[in-house]
Amino acid sequence: xxxxxxxxxxxxxxxSAAVRLxxxxxxxxxVLTGLWITAGRALFGAGGLLVGVFAxxxxxxxxxxxxxxxxxxxxxxxxxxxxxxxxxxxxxLACTWVLALIFGFLVPDRVEGxxxxxxxxxxxxxxxxxxxxxxxxxGILTFVAAFATLGLAIAQDRRGRRxxxxxxxTEDEILDAAGYDGGxxx
Length: 186
Fold this sequence. Notes:
The chain has helices spanning 17-39, 49-56, 58-79, 87-106, 118-123, 128-164, 171-177; strands at residues 109-111, 114-116. It is mostly helical and 186 residues long. The protein has one domain. Strands 1-2 form a two-stranded antiparallel sheet. The chain is elongated, with a radius of gyration of 22 Å.
C-alpha cells in the first residue's frame, strides 16, 4: 500500500454455496416447480380436470416468466468471475420455488365428483376448504415472486452488461457522466 493510496482495494466476497446452488438449479427448478403446480397433486390421487387446464394456462405463463428470469440471471452470472448470480436474485428464486411448492400442494381439483387437493389427501378431507382458499393466495404470491425475480434479473443483467462495456451502470454514474450538476441555477 503506497502513501497515495490510504485504503486497500475492496475485494468482492465470493458467493455462498446457497447462491451458487440457486444459480445452478435455476432452470431445472423452473421446470420442476412448473410441473409440480400443474400436475404434482396427481401424485397424491388429487389429479383431475384442472391438470389439463393448468397445462395450457398456468404452466406456459409460469415457464415463460421463470424461463426469462433464468436466461437473464444466467447471462449475468457468466459475466461474473464467480459464475453465480447475486444473493438478492438467489433469494427471490428460492422464495418463488417455496411458494410454488406450497401452491401445488394446496391447489384443489375435482376427482370423481369430489373436490380434493394434495393437502386434503395428506391431512384429511376437512382441510379442502382451507386448501382452496390458501391455494388461491399462494398462487398469486407465486406469480408475484416469479415476476419480481424476473424484474431483478433483468435489472442486474442490464447493470452487469453496462459495467462490462465500461458504461455507467447506475443512475448516479449516468448523471455524473452527463455532467449533471443537480439542477443548480447558478
